[in-house]
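new request in #modeling-help
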Amino acid sequence: MFSLRKLAYQAFGLIQFGVLLLIYAEPRPVHALTVKIPPRDARQTGRERININSDWRFWRSESNPDGIIYDHRPDLVGLDDAAVLKPWILPSGNDFINNPADRHQRPNGSSLGDDISFTQDSFDDGDWEAIKLPHDWAAQGPFYTEEDPIVGGGMGRLPVHGVGWYRRKLTVSSSDKNKSIYLEIDGAMSYAMIWLNGHLVGGWPYGYNSFRLNLTPYLEPGDDNQLAIRLDNPTDSARWYPGGGIYRSVWLTKVESTHVAQWGTYIVTRDVSDESATIDLVVEIENSGQRSQEIEVVTKLHVFDSTTGRAGTKVAQFPSHTAVVSARGKNAVDASVIIKSPQVWGPPPTQKPNLYVATTTLYADGKPIDTYETQFGIRTLDFNPNKGLVVNGESVRIQGVNEHHDLGALGAAFNVRAAERKLETLRELGVNAIRMSHNPPASELLELTDRLGFLVIDEIFDSWELNKTASDFHLIFPDWHEPDLRAFVRRDRNHASIIAWSFGNEVSEQHTDKAGAALALSLHKIVQQEDPTRPTTASMNFAKPDMPFGRSMDILSINYQGSGMWDTPNYSNLAGIRTQPLYPDFHEAFPDKMILSSETASTLSTRGTFFFPVDATNTGAPINETSGGNSTLAQVSAYELYTAGFGSPPDKVWTQQDKNPYVAGEFVWTGFDYIGEPTPYYSARSSYSGIIDLAGFKKERYYLYQSRWLPDVKMAHIIPHWNWPARVGEVTPVHVFSAADEAELFVNGKSQGRIQKEEYQYRFRWDEVIYKPGELRVVTYKDGQKWTEDRVRTTGKPVELRLTADRKTINGDGDDLSFITVQVVDKRGDVVPTADNSITFSVDGPGAIVATDNGNPADMVAFPSLERRAFSGLALAIFRGIEGSSGDVTVRAKANGLPVARIKLQVR
Ligand code: GAL
């Protein structure tokens, strides 16, 4: 029988230490990571996985258009008589509920809502919008700019709410007659309900999980099967931008009636050494047919080639096993194999993300009936309470960032290239870890983190029974927390990049003492049952070392408390629980548990924007009109000292991390700005917390983090810019971010002093510099030797737009993108740091600009606009080729008074 117990090596038990093959490389910025974009359709013996992202019709209503609801909800008023479909949807989670007695029976007879016209073949959707998935109905805007909109700043001021219907035809041929056919939805926001040919098939409320439904009973041969999907997105479902719609891929999977079950393989590696590693495999087989079958399971192991996305050299074969799978039943086999000289998976730059692929074939009567591939990696992890994270025997400091799921101007609609571009920028910054805050990401993103070697904390919930917003997950927690948790772990547990599972972020149950801790423990247990090989965690911004909450998890994730909150004089006027840096207390209370900071900083800033005076401390200051902020402009100064009320600048975070070296590292809040949660200015559309802005442009802070995370990179970065005509003769502090230990600043050739970094100093600052136009130059030193220089000049006025593209040749698959940066430059070619010229884009050739941005959190021009003001000298245009097309493309950018700028691209 399928028994995870067999694999129940103690929580980190596999976490054995061998002498490992480490591949050392020079730490250096890595550009152009380009890995092969995951294949679209996959056809293998017995199994077809067909991408059905094309040919959809879509329509949305802001209010309830059809008299049906999943269940009653605070934002659904006046719908007391609506048909409640929950009893028909709950059974979709049954495969993820352990106790048979807790599984749901579908009510008898046809369901309420089957007669809805939108579900019927006869309904004419000809005037609905023709769209391609992934699709986010809200990202197109417009932004709500009024004072008290239906969707406020927290959720990005975009029209995420309402009911959206998606319709499409499905084709099955007569050769599919005896097959099992499944619909796989990678993510639909939210409360998905699915009808086929007028029958309610099922659904899944939580918008971040992937799910599968069995369409077989409702399909007819031919091309006229009518699929209809209804989504319903609350106005108040999140503290950030959730997006709306089928925002990830959708697949039709056709298999023989006996086949590898959904997410039906589980691979665990153990006894890893230079010489060998043991690979344990479980294959779960499902038989939806009418007769029992004897199945032989054969699995071969190959090296996985991340650049081609294909299997390489064969390295081993598991002993074959036979299992009898009863009619309409399941069974599982397990097998182990030892491989020689394993190539371990580990994070660059010191290790390599080597992967393997297991190809499982099921045979019935000697004939192959299903083939299923599982990518995985071999690595050892030790979550050491004193040394931090040890990967393959090497201590690896977590240099992490938090990332929400949106992709800036593209909204929540997942796009592989946009995600890969983010990872490239993060790698160049020195990031080696990502916390998927606060929800499971697209599977393709985890394929990228596997292939590129990022360490991942996969996280699922921001709330449990107690809410944070009126219509968040708490509404469905009682029915869905178990299916959602199990589905989350089962989908993702073969990913090499995932090192830990987080089942909660800052949940309010931290405040309910033993009751909250007991609930936490029950969630921990569910995760452990699904994957005993990785530690669990839940992030704590309130629970203290002497409270029971921390006892319910394997490793401690602390948000902000490690570096102290509201504890320095600048914050003394704010309300908040004054908390001294708590790393030592947690370490003492939990000597056996590794500690990491799952959120640090919440430093806020706007790229290229500086306000005066500048706070004199490096321990941070909250934002107000005279301290780092301007509420009229809705901007925050980029001296990188100003924070959310509970936050700390990087300098203060690092001081505490360096004083407490047992802490495994940090995940900064956040790597990129994200849509929504624009603390401190809720009139804006996107956050201020990113090290990188929403358009993907580096803020000043980027260089501060890079100086710590990649200290061998020869880099010095001066702030502010030097265009201050109104400040002549005034004190204008200059800060320099660099890994150097000494630096000398010159203003127009005149030294402002050579200074050394003291212990727990992470930036150079000259606070008395008097502004004069001209040139700032810094010369830095390391160990007494000259190291590197940086220079900032007062620029002239804009004379030209300079266009560059991250990639000049892209695929004409309708998904691939080229990101084009516009720099507004003066006659010497320097970017004019205050330029805000209005730029209009146009395209000749097979493609279009699909979105523009500039990284300004307060820019309320809708993302698809072809007209975009530059912000602090930069703007972004995102180009996509037309599906199936090829040819030369010219993108033009035009601004009043400047010559038209052009860049040539190729679609092929
Ligand atoms: C944290 C929270 C994050 C985000 C952040 C803002 O408390 O976990 O989701 O809200 O604050 O700074």
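bot summary: The two ends are 50 Å apart (CA to CA).
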